[in-house]
Design goal:
flat, 5 helices, 27% strand, alpha+beta
């Protein structure tokens, strides 16, 4: 098992279901677009497979923004960690150990009934994927294989408003069932599936009725420097073979759809 640490300072903004959390961020934390960040990894290649976790986090781990980020990571990893959120490495080590321990019993049972042993896989990455003076967007990707026909990948994330560390959800849209918003979602899906018409899009989806009222993704909207990133995970609206339908809606197309909160967050208004 090994641990890697890397300190780096970013000078520009990067491209990146939830409960609303509030913390008290200082004015200093909100003064610059990019935070000084560190990255830690724990990697174990053992008899039953590959188990790894990597996490980016602000260098000042006592700041409200850093704790909001690590708390989110803990909740996505299972929410059973009972320590403080000022030590990202401790959180990583806790869930890494927990995963290896929990998977061990299944691995041993599989070996008893099979002539071959599966090579299990658990790889989690929590990273900063976008940051401006107003927000920090965190990505959460967990790839797993526990035997069977194929593995799974969860691709999630969250946008944290810097001035109070609020988690941003779909509530910052005025009417997600409205025709204009639905049209934007359909257009993004058409681009993902490389089709041009509604009729061509229908067979790509589990339910053709989605074309008239597309459900929202379980992943909240992710604010990036290029626009709003929308991620549908496997099996949400389409078969596994379709991958994870993902697209970005430019902010200039969303002005009429966002609440004032959303418009301020992406800089449409001050």
């Amino acid at each position: 098992m090994k641990r890697k640490s890397l300190l780096f300072l970013l000078s520009a903004a990067f491209t990146c279901c939830g409960l609303v959390m509030f913390f008290s961020c200082s004015a200093k934390e909100n003064a610059t677009a990019a935070s000084a960040m560190e990255s830690d990894s724990i990697v174990a290649d053992i008899d039953m497979g590959h188990f790894a976790i990597t996490m980016d986090y602000p260098s000042d781990t006592t700041s409200a923004l850093a704790q909001a980020m690590t708390e989110y990571a803990s909740e996505m990893l299972g929410g059973s960690y009972q320590g403080t959120y000022t030590s990202p490495y401790a959180i990583m080590a806790y869930y890494h150990t927990q995963t290896v321990t929990e998977w061990r019993s299944d691995y041993e049972q599989f070996k008893e009934v099979s002539s071959t042993s599966p090579s299990l896989y658990w790889n989690t990455v929590i990273s900063r994927i976008a940051e401006t003076p107003r927000f920090l967007t965190v990505g959460f990707i967990c790839e797993t294989y526990q035997g069977g026909a194929h593995g799974l990948c969860i691709d999630y994330g969250v946008t944290l408003r810097k001035d109070d560390c609020r988690r941003i959800g779909w509530e910052i849209f005025r009417n997600v069932k409205g025709e204009n918003f639905q049209k934007l979602i359909r257009q993004g899906l058409k681009e993902y599936f490389s089709v041009t018409t509604d009729d061509e899009l229908k067979p790509m989806l589990f339910n053709e009725e989605y074309i008239y009222s597309m459900p929202l993704p379980q992943c909240p909207p992710l604010f990036t420097d290029k626009g709003l990133k929308v991620i549908y995970n496997s099996y949400e609206i389409a078969p596994y073979a379709a991958g994870r339908p993902t697209f970005v809606i430019p902010y200039d197309k969303l002005k009429g759809e966002l609440t004032v909160t959303g418009q301020r967050l992406c800089g449409i208004i001050e």
